[in-house]
Amino acid sequence: MVLTLSCRNGRGIVHAVSGALLSVQGDITESKQFDSPDTGTFFMRVEFTTPEPLTAVEAALAPVKEEFAMDMGLWEASRKTRTLVMCSKDGRTLNDLLFQQRAGTLAVEIPVIVSNHLELQPMAFFYGIPFVHIPVGKDAQGASTKAEAEAKLLDLVREYDIELVVLARYMQILSDDLCRRLEGRAINIHHSFLPSFKGAKPYHQAHERGVKLIGATAHYVTGDLDEGPIIEQTVQRVTHAQSAREFVIRGREVEGSTLSRAVKWHAEHRVLLDGKRTVVFD
Amino acid sequence: MVLTLSCRNGRGIVHAVSGALLSVQGDITESKQFDSPDTGTFFMRVEFTTPEPLTAVEAALAPVKEEFAMDMGLWEASRKTRTLVMCSKDGRTLNDLLFQQRAGTLAVEIPVIVSNHLELQPMAFFYGIPFVHIPVGKDAQGASTKAEAEAKLLDLVREYDIELVVLARYMQILSDDLCRRLEGRAINIHHSFLPSFKGAKPYHQAHERGVKLIGATAHYVTGDLDEGPIIEQTVQRVTHAQSAREFVIRGREVEGSTLSRAVKWHAEHRVLLDGKRTVVFD
Amino acid sequence: MVLTLSCRNGRGIVHAVSGALLSVQGDITESKQFDSPDTGTFFMRVEFTTPEPLTAVEAALAPVKEEFAMDMGLWEASRKTRTLVMCSKDGRTLNDLLFQQRAGTLAVEIPVIVSNHLELQPMAFFYGIPFVHIPVGKDAQGASTKAEAEAKLLDLVREYDIELVVLARYMQILSDDLCRRLEGRAINIHHSFLPSFKGAKPYHQAHERGVKLIGATAHYVTGDLDEGPIIEQTVQRVTHAQSAREFVIRGREVEGSTLSRAVKWHAEHRVLLDGKRTVVFD
Amino acid sequence: MVLTLSCRNGRGIVHAVSGALLSVQGDITESKQFDSPDTGTFFMRVEFTTPEPLTAVEAALAPVKEEFAMDMGLWEASRKTRTLVMCSKDGRTLNDLLFQQRAGTLAVEIPVIVSNHLELQPMAFFYGIPFVHIPVGKDAQGASTKAEAEAKLLDLVREYDIELVVLARYMQILSDDLCRRLEGRAINIHHSFLPSFKGAKPYHQAHERGVKLIGATAHYVTGDLDEGPIIEQTVQRVTHAQSAREFVIRGREVEGSTLSRAVKWHAEHRVLLDGKRTVVFD
């Protein structure tokens, strides 16, 4: 099982938690903790085995949870996070996610893929995953169909009991309202080393500025575009001799692995929020 | 000898240059070139040996230079770039530069070090380099002494026949006027991965934003603060568990090597300007 | 067009080559060269445009080739290298190659995939590439079928006019004879940072030794197992907390991109052999 | 204070340790643990504050230590590790260590520097550290003075109450006997990515083999040359265009930082031994 918790820092927390786990014959296999000096918050993640069922463990932890006013999560470690992936036309990032999911190295199941285009339907088909096409554009009266598209998406989230939404190079900006509804359970990959080069065409901005390293950033989605808590970042070396188009190609190499790592950590309950920052117990 | 040149791109440039070098029995040991598709400019750097003196080589190249309207530079490869280093209180970056200069891996000579503080005088003394203290503050009337300080600096640049000014964590902002006078011959190290976190306290900004990589950027100084052409960048991994103070310590590790590489390349005439970008023939 | 050449170093080579290209109105778009001090060999790669056909360019270069006794190669830049990929059961590396080939970022065409197992046939099918199953094992008399399998492979190489064989985690050791026949046109990915951990189970060897970085090496195949000229290497950070199995998973992340880069460079004629080393004009 | 411990893995360890710390009003500020599946050993490192003196904490932990048959270490966090540095002629690595020690980012004090040459005496002088010259060579009868030199070194270790010996590019091979005596408290920097290129001239070996990355490895010294437990490794990109001499120069850039990190972690009691591997709680 995996236990995550956060609370105001204080004395005796580890002793209380380890005592509760001991009472259900818990055998700790991995434990990480962090005191945030900035927010005064204590974070902990424990992996353990126990012969007891989840409800018994919950009961054992309940008094500790109350005493320290903890935010607490408890999961069977083998349970997979139900994940909806959104994509557009470019499939490299999606391809990475689907391959790793099938290879068993990502603790997610993907019951449905959503795209505003049809290009990646064959890939979904190859991996045996339902593909829903939700175009975003103008209706007959010339009005945007975005609100309608987002409503459909939320229907799918409910219908498929989705716990995590992954934006795998989905090239549309989500509305503030949708961002708020998905807060803490939607991950985006931005193709720059944030906070550099927010917004559109970051590789072109990077080329224009003449940087010597380009990057990718996986972050939680918030209403503030490209400002959400960062989960993982990777960079890659470039030179003057590479064009903006080559930046795009080289960047792709790390976008997929950066996003996959972030999804893996989230699905294994390794990412906790500390204000606008993340605590990653990798 | 080292030859650098840039001109509008066109046919026959390489043939003309190699012909001129052949006429002085030049033996090319290293040659790099780059066509910038953005600016239509052709850049070239050639290292070669020749039994002829510099003036003879210049004469042989003169018609080529004129035909293609080239910007051209020609140097004895063994000649060292006369470099003035400016520093403040923190010596790590200075220490790296001085050690490498003495070890013979940086093609510079450093006839004078300038600082607005006295902390690093012993280090200059250890390396046998004159140290000039130019404080910046308020005079008796409460007016800033910055203009006066910059005038003294320019005097030193003239007096010591300085070709390159290196700002090794010199914590003062130079005036626009001084930046312009030193354009293309002053290199600064900024302790972030530009264009992220310009201005003051970049490590603290980076910590606040929760990034997973921190960096350092060596760039030419221009009037536009932290906007000059980038020569070299390096990053380093950080985690949630490191404080802003630890970011500072970890960052120091790469600031020195990043700045040293930029100085080395500049001193070996490996850096050419392509608009706001650099071409680095490393 | 792309021109590659190597010859004994001497004066006037660049001038002669650029003169020949000028005579066919060649416009050089990229040019790299290298003098190997160890072997006294000069290497050059030139990309250029010309209104003349390949035969005319060949004719123009013929006297230069003869004068300097050059090894020379000349190709249309748009021509794709005909590549046969061999794989076994694990598809991550194959998946990377096929995706990039289809995305147009690898200058290869892949007319046939060979495997000693059937697991990856669906992936070949998805990408529309013929899949040939050549099992390696024992025949009815208990004798190895390896020689027979290699004969079949060579038949396919001939039949499909193959220029490059890529071993994408093909887990069989090729015979010395086959290695010799494919010398310079077969690339393997070894899942360690060579020369560390040659042979079988390198991630387990790496874990046993307690290294802090693991890696992948793409190299040309030679009779000497894991001793061929190295084209590209990548490493990844690991810690004590990761098991050998996790090394395998993390390693996969870089195996595919390392092999793809090597294949890309080979297909673009950017890799030249300098004794047991490679010159990579990337 | 800092507590480190290791013992056979079992249930209740964390609870017992946290209970003992609670009894002395210990406030845990950092805690890391690791179960080694390979050796069945449990490792833990705790940083905590307490109003009690060290002896009281030791007394509180004594029953826990006995119950679980622990190897245990307990230190005042502010206490600096007494470190003897050995060097030869090249000062880059020494320079890094001394600078960081003085800047306060390495938790060591260095009461004495030992060298078999005199080149680095001025640097020791600059940092105000006694420098002892212990030459290694032949005596008047032509016999090696190595045994005598090592005896002198051990005298210094005793005299200065040395806890850690750092070999900062000390180019002599220590005798098996000395290695055994210093086991677990001597750190060496080897200038390759071990286990590649053991022994002499690793950069030249790396150049000969044509690798694309070079590295540095900080490890504990054991009788088995270059086979000791690895603490930290770093790599750096190289190309065909760099000579073995340039490998040496580029390598120096990372040797110092690699060794400094290893020394820092050791001095902060972050490195524990798990058989031939290290557990690094960084």
From TrEMBL, chains A, B, C, D:
CDD domains: ACT_F4HF-DF (cd04875), FMT_core_Formyl-FH4-Hydrolase_C (cd08648). Coiled coil: none annotated. InterPro entries: ACT-like_dom_sf (IPR045865), Formyl-FH4-Hydrolase_C (IPR041729), Formyl_transf_N (IPR002376), Formyl_transf_N_sf (IPR036477), PurU (IPR004810), PurU_ACT (IPR044074). Pfam families: Formyl_trans_N. The lineage of its organism: Bacteria, Bacillati, Actinomycetota, Actinomycetes, Micrococcales. It comes from the Bacteria. This is Formyltetrahydrofolate deformylase. It comes from Citricoccus nitrophenolicus. The active site is at 226.
